[in-house]
Amino acid sequence: MIVDFQHHYTPPELMERGGAGILRLDQHGNPNYKFNPLLADLPAHIRMMDRAGIDLAVLSCGSGFDQPDLATCRLINDRMWQAERDYPGRFIGLAHVPALDPQAGPAELKRCAVELGFPGVVMASELQGQPLDAGTLRALWKACADIGLYVFIHPLPRVIAWPQMYADDLGRMLGWEFSLMVATVRLINSRLLDELPTLKIQMSHFAGGIGRYLPRIRGLQDREQNGTAAIPMHGRQPRRPFDHYLQHRFFYDCCGWSGPDYAAERGAAWMRSGLDELPSSQVVFATDYPQAVQDDDEVVAYVNALRALGTEAQSIVDGANAEKLIPGLGLRLKHAVV
Q1: What share of the chain is helix, strand, coil (3-state, %, to 5)?
Q2: Is the pLDDT of residue 337 over 80?
Q3: CB atoms within 10 A of CB 330
Q4: Where are the strands (E) in 150-220, listed by range?
Q5: pLDDT (tens digit per residue) in 262-283
Q6: How many domains does the chain divide into?
Q7: What is the CATH number for 231?
Q8: Cis omega (within 30 of 0) on the bond before 155?
Q9: Which of 188, 205, 185, 186 is nearest to 196 (CA)?
């Protein structure tokens, strides 16, 4: 079974209008999200999935990654739930919640888990400018662990507030991946994972391609050697070796490359790079459809190229790790509402 763990859907009510794909700009003129018409076209999603051999897609919505408005979150969640019913056994929704609201966030999280049956929740790599290890989020993280929901971390839906990023589409090109790496390191050093041993987190894009930076990260994690051991906020250390968390506590998805052409080659190269440092046992398949890749033929080529990489990639594409994030997945699909 092939399960796509990063598959984007936007309810028609939330699509920005005008033209064949609106590129949203921020107040500084930086592109931060593209409203591709395919985002709202679920029949097109099914057509692509059938052609590529993708059995199931886990849905998330860009308008809900860092959404403070409860009504908008509820709309997204209800449309995700409706998609599950309209296409039995093909889609699974994730919860979208106002994460920094101490009352509404946990309440909507519980509604999604209990009433809608969602297996996870999506959060941006930063929330309203707050890092994911902020104390104000501790209760929500604990609620996720207590309820048994995994957390899908997607890049923040905006450009990092750094003027040097305000050109060349650097916010999307590099800033998003930088934000994922920062979130990964901060979550480890904050000891959140030590406090919540059952918490499961899926980091997008091989955690922003963190494997390429691990020699530098490992070196600077030696606080005594680098003179930071006694400096507040710079001397933080987890209870176990840093690599333990990378190898055993995070899950990663294998999308993150971008571009409409040569999807197979780019996707395969990205997979090889990620698996150089991160274990295949912690990686799940993902396409980033219909944002990074849109054309049906390109998705087919991507799936085939990953399979051709060998046994490690084969186990990822064929969903061997899917039930680690969604326990009882087979039973869930068997009892899908028709």
Answers
A1: 50, 15, 40
A2: no
A3: 12
A4: 150-154, 201-203
A5: 667 888 888 988 999 999 999 9
A6: 1
A7: 3.20.20.140
A8: no
A9: 188
